[in-house]
Design a protein that fits this description.
heterodimer, A: alpha+beta, Mth169, Chain: A, 3-stranded antiparallel beta sheet, 2 helices, 3 strands, 22% helix, B: alpha/beta, Rossmann fold, two-stranded antiparallel ribbon, 6 helices, 23% helix, 23% strand
Amino acid sequence: MTLGVRFAVNVSPKPGILDPQGRAVEGSLGHLGIAGVSAVRVGRRVELTVEAADETAARAVVERLAAELLSNPLIEAYEIEVLGAASSTDSERAPSDGGAGAGARAGAGAGAGA
Amino acid sequence: MTVRIGVVVFPGSNRDIDAVNALEVAGAEPVILWHEQASLDGVAAVLIPGGFAYGDYLRAGVIARFSPVMRSVAAFADDGGLVLGICNGFQVLTEAHLLPGALLRNRGLRFVSREVEIAAERLDTPFTHLLGERRALRMPVAHGEGAFHADAATLDELEANGQVLFRYVHDDGSRAGGEDDRANPNGSLRAIAGVLNAAGNVAGLMPHPETAVEAVLGSDDGLGIIASFVASAAERERAGGRAAVAVGAR
């Protein structure tokens, strides 16, 4: 019996890394007539469902994905949030179709360009 | 015998044909290596061309890192094999941790597509030994994420180890300034346009030497880089080093 847990991984530029997108957003604030907003940093949020024996095991998978794929540790930091038990409305695709798996493409077509 | 050099093709590569042409101009036989293949087909060296591998989703180069061909390229590089990454290929090599640093969004936020000038900081590497002298080399850039970044300690270490291979320069060869200097097209720290790994067998740069190999293309200043790479691959092959026909499991 496995458990589906919904996570969010919030990836943001590390302190000290120049964030030109944040700077551009900040630069636009004058056009909105907004004052008093500073230190805008633009990051990325990735939500995903993990099927595992328990929440600890699921979290370990997310930790690995966050560190190896979803963020570049040289320039980005990440935080993991547990959103709760997965539900069928979390994604446009049913969890059973494997569509979220990065490994889904492996295997087929080896050597096609040789 | 003509030296065979692999050109890796990912979904979204778009400078692969330019790379093939440049290798032919330099006298090599290009061999296309598809991203799904684990075998490097016994090539003497590997070139990773520009483009938008896997759509540059998530971060430029990161998804390509996990492809079967890149696992073999990493093993080839660890074994001393020569690998050159250009533009998106450079991004792939940094994401694969085969080269130091990271390439951030251009500081001006714009995609930059124009000619720039770079100079080799070292003339004694497999990628630059035929350049002859340090001078400004004119060639195009075309990228949105090319600002070289590493922390200050890493930058100092790269300088001390001679791993800064190319810098953006003015046409008199003097080093470009920061993001406000047009000669530095993307705001790269210390005007770094290309780096070398510590072992000296893997290099990457953002500008495109492979599209500046014939006068008809507007410049042939890039040919010295491609020719150095080809000559070094031939040399290494004569010395007995070449890619295993099959590395790892498919």
